[in-house]
Amino acid sequence: MRFYFSLLFLLFCQFLAAQETDLSAFNIPAALKENASSVVRDHALVYQAISRSEATIFERKVITVLDDNHGGVNRLVVHYDGDSKITKIKATLYDAFGEKVRSAKKSEIEDVRNLTGGQFYTDSRVQTTTLEHISFPYTVVFEYEKSLKGFGIVEFPNWLPLTYDQSVEKASFVARVPQGNELLYHRNQLPEPVITDDAGDRVYSWAVNNLPAQRYEADAPPLSQTVPYLKTGLKSFTVNEYEGSLENWQEFGKLIYQLMEGRNTLPGQLKQLVHETTAGLATEREKIDALYRVLQDRTRYVGVQLGIGGWQPFSAEYVEDNRYGDCKALSNYMGAMLQEIGVESYPVLVYSGGVPFFPVDETFTTGSAFNHMILYVPSEDMYLECTSKLAPTGYLGEGTDDRNVLWVTPAGGKLARTPAIPAAENSHLRTVRLDLDPQGLVKFSLEGRFYGATQDFLRYFASAERDETKQREILHRRGLLPDVTGTNYEIDCATEDPLVRLTYETELKNYVRKLGKRMFVPFNKLYAYDRVPDKLEERKLPIFRNKARFYVDTVHLTIPATMEVESLGAAVTEITHDAGAYRSEVVAADQTLTWVRTLKLLPVALPASAYEGYRQFFVDVAKADKRMIVIREKRTK
Q1: Smallest Cα–Cα separation from 360: which of 159, 225, 169?
Q2: From CA 207, how far away is CA 193, in angstroms rounded?
Q3: In the beta sheet, which residues pair with residue 177?
Q4: Taken in order 249, 254, 259, 260, is the CA torsion positive or negative?
Q5: Which residues, in sequence order, are bridge partners of residue 215?
């Protein structure tokens, strides 16, 4: 180990010496300053796989910071845990002329626990420091060395030469892998590597130079698909006593299955409870539902990840004894209960969150594309979110729907895709009644039914915040309630379905605008859709939107008997685009006007050239949704 480490460090130093960078900010080419808040002057990343179970990483990054919109590039963050060790870390600050200002002292480099995603305890830590200067531009130089072993070997490096609002003078990535093994890689906007053989290693090299900055644009695909990006892995590796492979998804799934094998034995009292709970139930679906309630009632999610525990679940017996577990442990616990009644299930690796930074690719196997585990029941074609104490049985929210996942089966891994929740099931049906008096005061009442993704926040919010006053304040800030002083407030979460009901009544003083004998009255002042994409001189990135919604709002507006409609506008308004469809209709009956609006928003993947039409759809929708009528005092005959 020491020989390999010293050899690689020598090669690394020689590599850096050959690429010395002029640190003066005034020598940056003008083209690299355009649209840039920072410039990567030099970035060198070197990875050495010493064996199937040991590796080292060396990184040096030189960044000139141009303004305060740099996105935190002046902060060094290096992760480590029980299976990795930081052997060197250094941060140095230079002024605009490239003159050294200072190096970070040891006391300035914090060493803190890295708790994320609801974790309770983990051995994951970071060493971090931030360098700032009194004026722009200035340059930071970050260097670190890290050794990996055990489960740390799966920390395969990813190379991102630049991010948005950042340009690059030069950057390189070199990987050395013993012959007999193989570096696997997925590349975006990068050429094939230069591959050479040296001292028993196969050496893979990439380099980029003079990359201009690209501005961030909303509704774009993930960064890994829009800028140069490299993701790597080893064909064969060893973690503790387990042999792993990233050659294909089936082989990787075999490793995960081995890690979980033998940990699903139920203790006697839980076996008895499982059979008592399901006795007399006629269908498999009823039994699954009953055991899912047992899971929710008896356990809670606690993220505890230490060493192998980041990959291997606690046993079902441990969860039963302690009544908690992480996503892996709770999925294993639920699977063990189903197994007890003869229902087959598979643990499922999934990315939970918004748009994945690196969506799971069928052609490239990697474990780091996942951050969560759920459970799949093939006989019912049902996914179970085992960390939720509130979700209805079989409901997957928007954080895990419509994405590639990996079933962990006895035969190994199998790629599948979670179902997309259609727009009609991510919806709200909202009815508002507005009773207007001659002075302009409005009596307001709301009855809303929220489904799917539109109810997720309300369901978990209602459980977490029990104080009604605080509930009203938060819902008012989020635009769901017009004020906090009304009556008949109720929020009701259905148990069996992803449905939340919300009701409220109040009086509004400033809803209409009075001008002489006239009143200008908006139908949808409180809930008008106003999310319009930015106006751009030129769109450069493709358009990507993965959310589906269906909004139905009905407004019943009753005007005083002493007033009449002077201007109503078109009876029907329709707007259509690939991104969705809008329709509104107004019907008058006596002194009541009923306005019904439907807005369907659909996932899209469009070229940059379609942006103007895409944006115009939302401009037109926002304009139509702010529709206003004019009423006036009735004329005497």
Answers
A1: 225
A2: 9
A3: 202
A4: positive
A5: none
E strand or H helix at 347, and its extent?
strand 346-350
Residue spans of beta strands (DSSP E) within 212-255: 229-234, 236-239, 242-245
Return d(Cα 482, Cα 477) in angstroms, integer.
9
Which among 29, 11, 418, 444 is positioned nearest to 199, based on CA atoms? 11
- Hey, which residues does 553 pair with through a beta bridge? 430, 597
- Is beta strand 427-436 parallel, antiparallel or unpaired with respect to 549-558? parallel
**Tokens 């060197």 label which residue?**
88
Query: How high is the mean pLDDT of the chain?
Result: 93
Q: Give the tokens for residue 119.
A: 């974790």
SS3 342: coil
Which structure tokens are listed for 86?
Answer: 């930081």
480 burial (CB, 10 Å; 0-12 / 13-18 / 19+) is buried
Q: Band of the pLDDT at 241, cuts 50, 70, 90?
A: confident
Separation of alpha carbons 375 and 361, rounded Å: 21
Residue 360 and residue 415: Cα distance in Å, rounded? 9
d(C-alpha 174, C-alpha 170), whole Å: 14
| Short-list 86, 203, 208, CA closest to 142 | 86
For residue 370, give the 3-state DSSP assignment: coil
* Cα–Cα distance measured from residue 134 to residue 541, given in angstroms and rounded to the nearest whole number: 35
The answer to whether 372 and 337 are in contact (CB under 8 A) is: no
Report in angstroms the alpha-carbon separations of 471 from 443, 483, 507: 22, 12, 19
CATH number for 424-633: choose from 1.10.3720.10, 3.40.50.620, 2.60.120.1130, 3.30.430.20. 2.60.120.1130
Q: How many degrees, rounded to 5, is the angle at CA 364 between CA 361 and CA 367?
A: 85
* Cβ proximity of 365 and 186 under 8 Å: no
pTM of this prediction exceeds 0.90: yes
Closest by CA position to 125, among listed 181, 68, 79 = 79
> Is residue 18's pLDDT more than 50?
no
pLDDT tens, position by position, 382-393: 999 999 999 999
Among residues of the chain, what percentage have pLDDT more than 70?
Answer: 94
Query: How many other CB atoms are there within 10 angstroms of residue 425's CB atom?
Result: 16
Pick the CATH number of 2-240 from 2.60.40.10, 2.60.40.1930, 3.40.190.10, 2.60.40.3140: 2.60.40.3140
**Cβ density class 287-303: b for 16+ within 10 Å, e for less:** bbbbbbebbbeebebbb
546: tokens are 């993965």
Residue 526 CA to its chain's centroid (Å): 29
Distance in angstroms (rounded) separating the CA atoms of residues 547 and 614: 15
Protein fold of 248-417 = C8orf32 fold (3.10.620)
CB 555 within 8 A of CB 625: no
Give the burial string for 56-86 (b: 16+ CB within 10 Å, else e).
bbbbbbbbbbbeeebeebbebebebbbbbeb
Confidence of residue 14 (pLDDT cuts 50, 70, 90): very low
Q: What is the mean pLDDT of residues 168-193?
A: 97
Amino acid sitting at position 124: S
How do the domains of the chain map onto residue ranges?
A: 2-240, 248-417, 424-633
User: Is the omega angle on the peptide bond into residue 137 within 30 degrees of 0, that is, cis?
Assistant: yes
Alpha-carbon dihedral of residues 301, 305, 309, 313, nearest 10 degrees?
10
